[in-house]
Amino acid sequence: MGHREDLLEGARRCLLEKGFLRTTARDIVKESGTNLASIGYHYGSKAELLVQAYISLIEDVGERFDPGLDGKVTQPPGTLERFQEVWASIIRTVPESRAIWLLSFELMFQDERLEEVRKLLAEAQKEGRSGLAAMFNGVPEAELDKEAAETEGRLYQTLLNGLMVQWLFDPDSATTAEQLTEGLRRVIDGLGTS
Questions:
Q1: What are the structural domain ranges in the chain?
Q2: How far apart are CA 132 and CA 136, in angstroms?
């Protein structure tokens, strides 16, 4: 590995251990075995490096909960059964990715101290929406139409963020995939009678 990759791995470890606010450039250098000048040379700034490390961590989580990768999804897209299978797959990853979700919420509650980081991550949110919509629709992300990413992706992302809050605060009473699906089923049934 070169300095660029070493820095990224060092920043990932620092984020998981210290979070965004407490991670310094010196921490990253110490963890990666590189030097301070390498951060600017390869990433432009500590903030950009931390964003790239965070995105890398989130991508790892996304790969773990993408049920299409290991054949766990057996139901066709557009069904409540598919909705439940995908959520069950996502929920299974929560214990191992808890530290990453805590990082996400750390960012939400910061003010201008992390403004540069927040702006960069806002852009990454778009990719997250697209990835979620692709999972539920059973298509490769590159084939997903823009409207599905913007509408369905926003819905799934909103549900995911709410679900993660529940799992972080009280995992024992957090909503299950079955409960989420039954709630949706009741909403759909209610819409049909109005």
A1: 56-189
A2: 6
